[in-house]
Amino acid sequence: MCMLILLLIAVTLTAGCSRGPEKSESEKKESPPAAKAKHDSWWCDEHGLPEGECWACSAKYARERKAKGDWCAKHERPESECFVCHPELKAKFAAQYEAKYGKKPPEPEDY
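Predicted structure:
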């Protein structure tokens, strides 16, 4: 009976981990953070930007901004979209939302 319990514990411990392989540091830097929001509309509620200009939701867009030298290394996002360093930019993007929908955008979650 004792052997059966030990066997069950061993199987549970070895089979319990279902995570995929760890990403390397370069892969982590290359990919944007996993986003929780749906990405099927014009606006990214999570980051407060139009989807086509969302650095966090589009690795391609982030790479393009980095290649152009538009990157805030401190906050890992384009300088032209860094609401932390440039709070006035938040109002600029909010104005685009208001012009399209006639109301204020949802508050970004990732700031």
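Summary: The radius of gyration is 21 Å.
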